[in-house]
Amino acid sequence: MPSTFRIPKAPLRGLTGRLIAAYCRRTFGEIPDVAHVAAHQPKVLRSVLSFEGKVAKWDALDPTLKTYAQLASAALIGCSWCLDFGYFKARESGLDLSRISQVPRWRDSDVFSDLERDVLEYAEAMTVTPPTVTDDLVARLLEELGAPAVVELTEMIALENMRSRANSAAGLQSQGFSDRCEIPLADAGGATAIRSPS
Questions:
Q1: Confidence of residue 178 (pLDDT cuts 50, 70, 90)
Q2: Distance between CA 66 and CA 93 in Å, rounded?
Q3: Which CATH architecture describes the domain 63-180?
Q4: CB 92 within 8 A of CB 186
Q5: Of 170, 168, 77, which Cα lies nearest the Cα of 128?
Q6: What pLDDT digit, counting tens, does each position of 61-83 carry?
Q7: How far apart are CA 188 and CA 12, in angstroms?
């Protein structure tokens, strides 16, 4: 299903809008729907882009673990737009798509290591309301990853919660980015599955 745009789609205007549109088309092949929503409030759009640019430079956490955590959070929230775009970015980064595709059903999959399962569990524990993070889980992550990576992991999950909840509230659904990927995301059993645009 295409995005419903509960918040109407806005054009990207002015020099900043044209630059953003050009960058998005060059980088992603099209303009992400999230940019059209944020374009209603240029200060929000500029702030989000600036922050995301800084987040992209964080490097204490392995990129694969970071992707697993973000997709697990998006899947639990049920943001098909975030799953779709996250899968596309994983493909563009050269990550193992056969494993990435299993994230929404990680508990039933046998492809993940103990550390990866802890990261996925942490993402879900942070995402549910109220959070269910335990001392034992954090202690295991600290032992395996170290404090800098755990801090980065925590912030990435929190950021994905913000993204997924905002995009879901705005009515954004799968935009078709993952249609260009080699395999579809695994069905997590309902609302979290990728929905192809009609």
A1: confident
A2: 12
A3: Up-down Bundle (1.20)
A4: no
A5: 77
A6: 999 999 999 999 999 999 999 99
A7: 34
Residue whose pair of structure tokens reads 């640019």 in the numeric block: 53
CA distance 20 to 184: 28
Cα distances from 185 to residues 56, 132, 162, in angstroms, run: 23, 26, 22
pTM confidence score = 0.89
> Residue 125 half-sphere exposure, CB side, CA atoms within 13 Å?
15
For the chain, the maximum distance between any two Cα atoms, rounded to a whole number of angstroms, is 51
Q: Where are the alpha helices (DSSP H) in 42-112?
A: 42-55, 63-77, 80-92, 97-100
| C-alpha–C-alpha distance, residues 7 and 38, integer Å | 9
Pairwise CA distance, residues 95 & 69, whole Å: 14
